[in-house]
Design brief:
InterPro entries: ClpP/crotonase-like_dom_sf, Enoyl-CoA_hyd/isom_CS, Enoyl-CoA_hydra/iso, Enoyl-CoA_hydra_C. By secondary structure, the protein is an alpha/beta fold. The protein has eleven helices and ten strands. The strands form two sheets. The protein has a six-stranded mixed β-sheet, sandwiched between helices. Strands 4-6-8-9 form a four-stranded mixed β-sheet. A hairpin with a 4-residue loop joins strand 1 and strand 2. It is globular, with a radius of gyration of 18 Å.
């Protein structure tokens, strides 16, 4: 069985369902570069494994799916390394989005920043009733870097996406359902069981047709990914600003940020 430092990789041969769990509970499952690389490796391993027919992606514990990126790691990036970090995240998340095997995000608790972006890369999103979603990067003087500006707009529309991106507001599970960000909201205790039952229904269908439908739906949007390239460029550029240094310092020092627009 595959072994990872920051993930739990649990295939079930009888059902064909693989459960990948982000397992950094002391960090509320925050994403660092090593974890993003492990996600990419785990998904690629699943794609290459004929016994894996569908994937559930979740976070350890009940507080967080993924509470965001690891801010202490982000604080050390510059404009060049920041762009590389965005491209790394986009590559991993696009692998999920383009998987011909269905991927369901079981969102248990906070899905913020990179966590919301990870959930949006999955084909379906099921939220526990205590889930919270948001893209708070602007609070740090940053923009989303792992596809958030693109997928949020695709899922809920330009106007509401801009509101959430510009205000950094968090929304509860019921609001996420109303906006179309998630497919269902269920009690925390029923989350994994619901996802397993939903995925099992999908897995009764023709696998090739399922993969083709995923590809067709993805093709509705720009396959050249110019939006993603723009996002990665500006994500990197944001690391060269004083506002980024102030935003991350304020976060780590647990104080309000004083942005000056430079």
């Amino acid at each position: 069985m595959a072994s990872f430092e920051n993930l739990l990789y649990a295939p079930d041969a009888a059902s064909g369902i693989l459960t990948i769990t982000i397992n950094r509970p002391t960090k509320l499952n925050a994403l660092n570069g090593a974890t993003i690389e492990e996600i990419r490796q785990a998904v690629q391993l699943a794609l290459d494994d004929k016994q894996v027919r569908g994937i559930i992606l979740t976070g350890s514990g009940e507080k967080a799916f993924v509470a965001g990126a690891d801010i202490s790691e982000l604080a050390a990036l510059n404009d060049i390394s920041g762009r590389r970090a965005a491209e790394q995240g986009q590559e991993a998340f696009c692998l999920i989005e383009e998987s011909p095997k269905p991927v369901i995000a079981a969102v248990n608790g906070f899905a913020l920043g990179g966590g919301c972006e990870l959930a949006m890369a999955c084909h379906l999103r099921i939220a526990s009733d205590n889930a919270r979603f948001g893209q708070p990067e602007v609070n740090l003087g940053l923009v989303p870097g792992y596809g958030g500006t693109q997928r949020l707009t695709q899922l809920i529309g330009k106007a509401k996406a801009l509101e959430l991106l510009l205000t950094a507001d968090l929304i509860k599970a019921d609001e996420a359902l109303r906006l179309g960000l998630v497919n269902h909201v269920v009690p925390q205790a029923e989350l994994l069981g619901f996802c397993q039952a939903l995925l099992a229904r999908i897995l009764t269908k023709a696998p090739l047709a399922v993969g083709m439908i995923i590809d067709c739906v993805n093709a509705y949007h720009d396959k050249e990914r110019h939006g993603y390239q723009t996002e990665a460029t500006l994500f990197g550029r944001a690391f060269g600003t004083e506002d980024f240094r102030e935003g991350t310092a304020a976060f780590l020092e647990k104080r309000p940020a004083a942005f000056k627009g430079n």
